[in-house]
Amino acid sequence: MKEWxxxxxxxxxxxxxxxxxxxxxxxxxxxxxxxGGWIFAREYGEGNPILIEPESGEVQVRKLPGMYPLKMRExxxxxxxxxxxxxxxxxxRLPDGTPELAATLPLGLPGYPxxxxxxGRTVIFHDVVQDLRQYPIPTTKDVRAFWHYxxxxxxxxxxxxxxxxxxxxxxxxSFDLAFSHEDTSPTDPGLIxxxxxxxxxxxxxxxxxxxxxxxxxxxxxxxxxxxxxHEFWWPGGxxxxxTYQDRRGDPTFYQLPWCEYAPTPTRxxxxxxxxxxxxxxxxxxxxxxxxxxxxxxxxxxxxxTDGHCFVYVAPFSWETTRIEMVPLASIHATYVPFxxxxxxxxxxxxxxxxxxxxxxxxxxxxxxxxxxx
Length: 373
Known about the structure:
Elements: E1 2-5, E2 12-15, E3 23-24, E4 33-34, E5 38-43, E6 49-53, E7 58-61, E8 67-73, E9 78-83, E10 88-93, E11 100-104, E12 112-116, E13 122-129, H1 143-150, E14 155-162, E15 168-174, E16 178-184, E17 191-197, E18 206-210, E19 217-218, E20 226-233, E21 239-246, E22 267-272, E23 277-280, E24 291-293, E25 299-305, E26 308-315, E27 326-330, E28 346-347, E29 353-360, E30 363-370
Antiparallel strand pairs: 1-2, 2-30, 3-5, 4-5, 5-6, 6-7, 8-9, 9-10, 10-11, 12-13, 13-14, 14-15, 16-17, 17-18, 18-19, 20-21, 21-22, 22-23, 24-25, 25-26, 26-27, 28-29, 29-30
């Protein structure tokens, strides 16, 4: 384990991994807490699970090559996964369980599996038709390329497949839009949240639906030019957090569509499962591409933005709308417009450490910094 003093924040940063191909925490909203205080990550190039004990810095690698995780149940470490291009669903209890075949999916199911409910019964399928070669994801400040991407022809569906009954249910369908961010509830095996794949300020972005196709609910109903994005489950699964920007009346909306360059502040919002907003913070000190919350709900993290390249933390309380984001460690990866810096902050189980991806000597590695003001 290496450590050094950050040149800008003057805080001690610890490098936990040193893999030839690098290692990463995975997308910020994916569950990572494993019983025993371990954090779940993955080795790039192999897909093998990496388990990290933040306090001691111990790193363990489980040999599950090509593993693509569907969901991990943080309460007991049960994880379901598939191997890429495979139709077998496997399950293993982390940190030290033995992998077992959970199900073999029949041929002909639509799309590909992207999630599974917290009881391991219902597999969620992502089914989208689009051409990203003709309409590539924009990664520069080229406004024409940005709107070209969002003008792409596309259609999509989300399906739920019951492993016990073999029933396939179409949850949502659109012939004008696609869907993304399928994410089952951490506590309710009948509930999933998802996004319409669209520019966040031009329609209703975040939704929930039951796995039987009922109860379609808009989360934080939006007016046009209100931006709701980067949604995540709050601890316990009874709330959904997100970032919010009010761009109504913003004359730069179409010329500066990127949230990180907009002249309007970012706020943390939280909604109940009926969709109503129950918390909205004061403006934050900069745009934060992803905001996340500690397991105890007492801290929030921020991944900074172009010109504010740090990982941040702030204490959180339902009693105040003031959130003071404090920079803890510098981010050295190149900032990519619309894509951020792949930092993927996450807290240790005891909320004492903030872990994040760091670009070190040409490879992604996992670092941490102590959570303290």
